[in-house]
C-alpha cells in the first residue's frame, strides 16, 4: 500500500508539474522536456534510497511525495528563461538563460543544500531522512537543471512558435467570441474587438463610393 501511495503521489505531482510548466512557459514542448527532467530527478532519488538500503516505510513514502515539488522549482525558472527570447536560436536561448537565470538558480540551490546539511546531524529519524531527501533532491536538481536540461534544450529545444500553445488559446478565445478567419481585428472597435466580414465588405464599398 505504501508503494502504491508513493507512486500515486509522484505521478500526480508530475502531472501537476506538467500543467504548471506548460502554463508558465506557454509551450508544450518545453513543458514536456522540463517534466522529463523532473522525472529523472525523482528516479535518481529513488535509486539513492535503494542504494542506501532503506525500506519504503511511512516516513520514506511521505518524503517521496515531496521530491517532485522540490525538484520543479529550479527547472521551471530555466524553462521560463528559455522562453524569454522569442525569435532566437535554441543555443542563443540557452546562453541567455544560463547567463541571466543560472546564477540565481545555483544560489537558491546552495542555500537549500546548506540548510539540509544541518538536518543530517539530527538524532530524530524523520529529520535525518528528510535531510537526506532534501540533499539528494537538490543535488540532483542542480545537476540535471544546470547541465543536462540546457544541453537538451540547445539540441532539440523549440524555436519561434514551435510547440507554442498560444495558437490553441487564440483559437479557443475566437471560438468563444464567435470570430471566424474572415473577420478582421479592430482595436478601436467596442465590444468583441473585431468586425464581421460582411461589415468589412460594406466599409470597402463605402470607401470606393466616396472616392
TrEMBL record:
Q: Which residues cross the membrane?
A: none
Q: Where in the cell is it found?
A: Membrane
Location (main, coarse): membrane
Q: Name one GO cellular component term.
A: membrane
Claim: DNA damage is one of the keywords in the record: no
One short Pfam name that applies is MMPL
Read off the InterPro entries from this record. Dispatched_Hh_regulator, MMPL_dom, SSD
Record's PROSITE patterns?
SSD
Which keywords does UniProt give here?
A: Glycoprotein, Membrane, Transmembrane, Transmembrane helix
Instruction: Spell out the molecular function terms from Gene Ontology.
Output: transmembrane transporter activity
Q: Does the keyword Glycoprotein apply?
A: yes
What topology does it adopt in the membrane?
Multi-pass membrane protein
Q: Which family does it belong to?
A: Belongs to the dispatched family.
Q: What is the name of the protein in this document?
A: Dispatched homolog 3-like
Amino acid at each position: 500500500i505504501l508503494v502504491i501511495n508513493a507512486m500515486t503521489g509522484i505521478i500526480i505531482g508530475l502531472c501537476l508539474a506538467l500543467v504548471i510548466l506548460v502554463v508558465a512557459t506557454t509551450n508544450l514542448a518545453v513543458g514536456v522536456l522540463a517534466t522529463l527532467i523532473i522525472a529523472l530527478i525523482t528516479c535518481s532519488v529513488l535509486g539513492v534510497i535503494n542504494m542506501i538500503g532503506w525500506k519504503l516505510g511511512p516516513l520514506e513514502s511521505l518524503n517521496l511525495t515531496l521530491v517532485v515539488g522540490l525538484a520543479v522549482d529550479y527547472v521551471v525558472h530555466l524553462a521560463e528563461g528559455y522562453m524569454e527570447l522569442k525569435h532566437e536560436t535554441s543555443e542563443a536561448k540557452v546562453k541567455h538563460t544560463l547567463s541571466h537565470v543560472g546564477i540565481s538558480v545555483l544560489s537558491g540551490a546552495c542555500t537549500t543544500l546548506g540548510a539540509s546539511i544541518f538536518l543530517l546531524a539530527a538524532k530524530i529519524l524523520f529529520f535525518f531522512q528528510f535531510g537526506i531527501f532534501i540533499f539528494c533532491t537538490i543535488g540532483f536538481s542542480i545537476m540535471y537543471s544546470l547541465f543536462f536540461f540546457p544541453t537538451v534544450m540547445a539540441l532539440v529545444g523549440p524555436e519561434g512558435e514551435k510547440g507554442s500553445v498560444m495558437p490553441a488559446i487564440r483559437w479557443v478565445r475566437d471560438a468563444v467570441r464567435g470570430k471566424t478567419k474572415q473577420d478582421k481585428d479592430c482595436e478601436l472597435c467596442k465590444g468583441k474587438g473585431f468586425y464581421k466580414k460582411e461589415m468589412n465588405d460594406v466599409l470597402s464599398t463605402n470607401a470606393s463610393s466616396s472616392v
